[in-house]
Write a structure and sequence with these properties.
The complex is a heterodimer of chains A (483) and B (256). Chain A is built from 16 helices and 15 strands. Chain A has helices at residues 14-21, 73-83, 170-176, 182-187, 194-209, 215-243, 247-268, 288-312, 316-322, 330-335, 340-344, 352-355, 374-397, 447-452, 467-474, 478-482; strands spanning 4-8, 25-32, 38-46, 49-57, 61-63, 86-88, 130-134, 146-151, 155-162, 277-278, 281-282, 416-422, 425-433, 439-445, 462-463. In chain A, strand 5 (61-63), helix 2 (73-83) and strand 6 form a beta-alpha-beta unit. The model of chain A is unreliable at 112-121 (pLDDT under 50). By secondary structure, chain B is of the alpha/beta class. Chain B has 2 domains: 32-85, no CATH class; 92-228, Rossmann fold. Helix content of chain B is 19%, strand content 14%. In chain B, the strands form 3 sheets. A 6-stranded mixed beta sheet of chain B has the order 5-10-9-8-6-7, with helices on both faces. The chains are: A alpha+beta (483), B alpha/beta (256). The interface between A and B is large, with 62 and 66 residues.
Chain lengths: 483, 256
């Protein structure tokens, strides 16, 4: 359970307050209070936990936080789109969530100020320079997202990302369905991070109701969460091998990934581990046979994985494409509050499993890399695969007999934060109850929402042929971002 | 590169024999729920319908439980009462079961369009290229341009911003063409309802083949693609009382 320190300021003083706290901005959203008033709510990382800063919204506007805290850039555009509240002085007050007719035009966004979203973007002009919209339907099997790429042929002069083609209204759906079924919606926000989303959602509900999770359920949750991390990290590896035209490597890593999905299908009944995590515990047991199957499969799997990885890390045509591609400075990663392997690949020391411990995660070494390029992000993932295998071994060893779930008690309080570390990074759910068994408000923030915010930055002075390498090294989920 | 050569040839054959032979699914796999018509009624039927998030289970005017299997997400919340189907030949034809416009017996070129999926079904589609399924052996290929495509493989419940893109991709395709809805949310909208989504591909385009599943497994996708190509027949409806036949019809054609 995440303890939040509470602060209240005026909306005019919010930017200064957040800058003063100085921690990573985890969430910023507007919501309606039970009495009908509106307020802004920010959740910021601070020493020993997090701070919730509330600022009542009197009128239709407030001074933008982005001017002082760049990480607020997309949050404030979202607030503008969803609530019609204007963040005055936002460097790029264009629609983010809303798709109007103006979104179909191929025009680049206007420049922001020095600390704004588009700091340092070089603009070209002249004959031969053009902008092409890449997406939302792209070559290959990809999720819907669009990138506006300005180029003179090879150098990417400028790249702007356009998301929210996939918005399904998950936050609203979570509140309108019966409480005991809402976790099924959370599992389907980002279908490849089903366990992490189910965990973050469940953690928030467990905090609101004061429900304890039994020991055995915690161990099962850890096993499933780490299994999910393994196949997501492999997915990134498969994509990078495909981009490097290493067809044998692609086939080998794809086969390794398939073995994990088959294991998931055999132990949980769903290849993406859905239907296991529920608020209060887990719905499915991993009995001795299932735990043994996981152990045996992963032992064999690990040996094959290590042999294949060893060859990959000696393949120059792979390393050449990733080293120095898509650099993200530590400064940008901090300024834009990046999370997950993207942040850790730029030297940021963060991991939800350690910073906001949950479900019995003990201490472990958080993987980090200082280089900040596509290769650094891959190396972080390879280290995390080792950690995950070790964490699964430990969790299997601590599968003590006992109950699988405790009934969820009545919801109370004005709101709670739930967090979990998906393969892509910190996943957050803020939930507010309406009586003992209903939700009034849900705000979710997937890791990809913040990591997409720096997409244009990592293309600074890059070339078009590296586009796929850089994009895939970020390991983003449009479904999670758009919700 | 020589290291990759040895790495590649050092492994045994992984590729499934499907559709020439069956592909076993693991015990306990939840592809979808199974319901004998009229098997459940009364109070129990109402309770089960209440825990079915996508509304696959409903109570008809006689008080009996009904199952719309293209809505089922296989969550298993009804599994205490209903059997779960672990089969994979789940795809079936749309347009009232009419014949497809033209069989694509030798090869099928596929353009995928995501209209708001959760992202898992894209990975299952991409898995068709892995050595276990290797769809190229069956003459199935992905193509970049809809102008080269025979089949439109659509995932997701069709969000408002993706509807015009979906229509444009369809209109760019040459005749004859087939539309395949892959995944429960593409088949019916699944758990998603509201102003953001249209609620299934068939609200926008006539769908020729439905492949339910949340997400459909690669082998279920393979069956659906071969069905669209006119190379396998629809499986007989499964029922809780008997084991689903692994192969409803012998595979015809294909490079196998």
């Amino acid at each position: 359970m995440i303890e939040l320190q509470e602060r209240a300021v005026s909306s005019a003083a919010l930017a200064a307050e957040l800058e003063g706290i100085g921690g990573r901005l985890m969430m910023l959203f507007a919501h309606e209070l039970p009495d009908g008033g509106r307020e802004l709510c920010a959740i910021v990382r601070a020493a020993g936990g997090a701070v919730r800063v509330r600022a009542p919204l009197g009128g239709g506007s407030y001074p933008a936080v982005t001017a002082r805290v760049p990480a607020a850039h997309w949050f404030e555009r979202e607030i503008h789109d969803l609530w019609g509240v204007v963040p005055e002085g936002h460097p790029r007050p264009e629609p983010l969530v809303r798709h109007g007719p103006e979104q179909r035009e191929v025009t680049l966004p206007t420049d922001g100020d020095a600390r704004g979203e588009h700091r340092g973007a070089e603009r070209l002009s002249g004959p031969g320079v053009f902008v092409f919209p890449y997406g939302p339907i792209r070559s290959g099997v990809f999720e819907a997202a669009q990138f506006l790429v300005q180029t003179g042929g090879e150098d990417v002069a400028y790249c702007a990302q356009r998301l929210y083609f996939k918005r399904r209204g998950a936050e609203r759906r979570i509140c309108e369905v019966p409480l005991e079924l809402a976790v099924l919606v959370a599992e389907r926000v980002s279908g490849t991070s089903s366990v992490a989303h189910a965990l973050a959602f469940s953690h928030a509900l467990e905090a609101l109701s004061g429900t304890e999770v039994p020991e055995r359920a915690r161990a099962i949750r850890r096993i499933l969460a780490e299994l999910e991390r393994l196949y997501n990290h492999l997915e990134v590896t498969v994509r990078e091998c495909e981009d490097a035209s290493l067809t044998v490597a692609q086939a080998q890593f794809a086969a390794l990934k398939e073995r994990l999905h088959r294991l998931a299908g055999a132990v949980v009944g769903n290849r993406f581990l859905r239907g296991a995590v529920v608020p209060g515990g887990v719905r499915l047991d991993l009995d001795g046979a299932a735990s043994g199957l996981i152990g045996d499969t992963l032992r064999e799997w690990e040996a094959d994985y290590r042999r294949t990885l060893a060859v990959l890390l000696r393949t120059d045509s792979f390393l050449d494409r990733l080293v120095s591609a898509g650099p993200l400075s530590e400064r940008d990663a901090l300024d834009f509050a990046c999370v997950g392997p993207v942040a850790r690949g730029s030297g940021i020391d963060l991991d939800t499993r350690r910073d906001f411990p949950y479900d019995g995660y003990g201490p472990f070494a958080v993987a980090r890399h200082a280089d900040g390029d596509a290769m650094a992000r891959m190396e972080v993932r390879f280290q995390e695969i080792d950690t995950s295998l070790e964490l699964i071994r430990q969790a299997r060893g601590s599968l003590a007999p006992g109950p699988l779930r405790n009934p969820l008690r009545a919801l109370a309080g004005d709101g709670a934060l739930g967090a979990a570390e998906s393969a892509r990074g910190e996943t957050l759910y803020w939930l507010e109850p309406d009586g003992p068994d209903r939700l009034r408000f849900c705000k979710l923030r997937a890791a990809s929402f913040v990591n997409y915010g720096i997409f244009n930055r990592v293309f600074d002075s890059q070339v078009l042929t590296d586009f796929a390498f850089i994009e895939h090294s970020l390991g983003l989920s449009p479904a999670g971002c758009d919700a | 590169m020589i290291r990759w050569f040895f790495r590649g040839v050092s492994q045994r054959r992984l590729t499934t024999r499907y559709p020439r032979g069956p592909e076993p699914a693991p015990e306990g796999f939840r592809a979808r729920a199974l319901l004998e018509p009229g098997a459940v009624s009364g109070e129990r039927a109402r309770e089960l319908a209440a825990v079915c998030l996508p509304g696959a289970l409903a109570v008809d005017e006689h008080g009996a439980l009904t199952l719309e299997d293209t809505r089922c997400i296989g969550c298993g919340l009804c599994a205490g009462e209903l059997a779960m189907d672990r089969g994979y030949e789940l795809a079936r034809r749309g347009r009232g079961g009419a014949a497809l416009p033209l069989p694509f017996r030798h090869s099928l070129h596929i353009r995928h369009v995501d209209t708001g999926s959760d992202g898992a079904v894209e990975q299952e589609i991409a898995a068709l290229l892995n050595p276990y399924y290797d769809m190229h052996r069956l003459g199935l290929f992905f193509t970049a341009s809809p102008r080269h495509a025979d089949a439109l493989l659509v995932t997701g419940p069709v969000t408002a911003p993706m509807e015009p893109a979906l229509r444009r991709a369809y209109e760019a395709m040459p005749e004859p063409r087939v539309v395949i809805a892959a995944g429960t949310d593409a088949c019916s909208g699944g758990i998603w309802t509201g102003p953001e989504v249209r609620g299934g591909v068939d609200r926008v385009l006539a769908v020729d083949v439905y492949i339910p599943g949340d997400p459909p497994s690669p082998i279920a996708l393979l069956h659906g693609l071969l069905l669209a190509a006119g190379r396998v027949a629809e499986a007989a409806p499964a029922s809780a009382g008997r084991e689903r036949p692994m192969l409803a019809a012998a595979a015809r054609g294909g490079a196998g």
